[in-house]
Amino acid sequence: MTEALPNVVAIIPIRGGDPETPGTGMVSIAGRPLLAYTLDAAKQSRYVRRTIVSTDDPGVAQLARALGAEAPFLQPAALAGRSVPLGHVLQHAVRWLDEHSPDPVDLVALLEITHPVRPPGLVDRVIEVVLNEQLDCAFGAREERHEFWTMDEDGALTRVRRREETPRTALQPMYKEMGGLVTVMRAHVPRAGHRLGERVGVVPVRDPGSLVDLHDEDGMRLAELLLQTAPRTDHGR
After folding, report:
1. What CATH number is given to the structural domain containing 47?
2. Max Cα distance, the chain (Å)
């Protein structure tokens, strides 16, 4: 008897009118709507059962449905501000699912449209880390072995690592969170209004395309180049 797969719901939050989210997902890049690339990542997962676009914008909701996702509600205006924590947006979506879905949500996979280039299979790798290691959540992360510095309000620099003489090859890796690529959490985490739980894991991501972030024009240009040359993974959808 095989163990039943968990009920995993992918949630894609899109805030209407956000200047840091180009065209709120409706812009085309490399000939397709920006939202389509993130939907591809959800569709290719063997675990994700439903993909929900959480937005306050009716136009985005209509586009999501046209691309094969669900947009069963519009966010209340109180969640549409830029200062609202993402955990609150996820909480609203999961509570809606709790009230309207017969199957309880086991895991939530957060995917953001500002990261249209994802390594194949990344979503499922993060899901499996959460399941296999009994974690509250895990996310894609960029592994680094360079030196890092912080700057205080007066402009003074402080080395993050204290030992200058340590060879780079001997440094313990540091991880840059790339939560927009994918963050997977057990449902109790967003139900409580959070994005990360107490037991956190990372999945190192080394694909150069994973660094693409569409919060500026340079990111848009780089994504356009990468997506124009990448093989299609949407099977013509």
Report:
1. 3.90.550.10
2. 63
Q: ∠ at Cα 103 (97, 104), nearest 5°?
A: 65
Chain centroid to Cα 173, Å, comes to: 22
Report yes or no on 50 lying in a domain: yes
Residue that has been written with the tokens 């013509």 in this structure: 236
83 vs 85: CA distance, rounded Å: 6
Q: Which amino acid is at 5?
A: L
Contact present, 43 and 50 (Cβ < 8 Å): no
Domain holding 52, by residue range, is 8-142+175-229
Q: What is the pLDDT of residues 26-70, one digit of tens each?
A: 677 888 898 999 999 999 999 999 999 999 999 999 999 999 999
How buried is residue 156: exposed, middle or buried, by Cβ count under 10 Å (0-12/13-18/19+)?
A: exposed
176-199 pLDDT per residue, tens = 888 889 999 999 999 999 999 999
Number of domains in the chain: 1
Tokens at 56, concatenated: 């306050």
Interatomic CA distance for residues 154 and 43, integer angstroms: 47
User: Does 214 map to a domain?
Assistant: yes
Q: At residue 161, what is the residue type?
A: R
Q: Is residue 2 one of the residues assigned to a domain?
A: no
Q: Which of 60, 84, 88, 95 is nearest to 74 (CA)?
A: 60
Q: Is 216 exposed, middle or buried (0-12, 13-18, 19+ CB in 10 A)?
A: exposed
Q: Does any domain span residue 154?
A: no
What ranges in 109-201 are assigned the alpha helix state H? 122-132, 188-191
Phi, psi for 102 (deg, rounded to 5): -75, -20
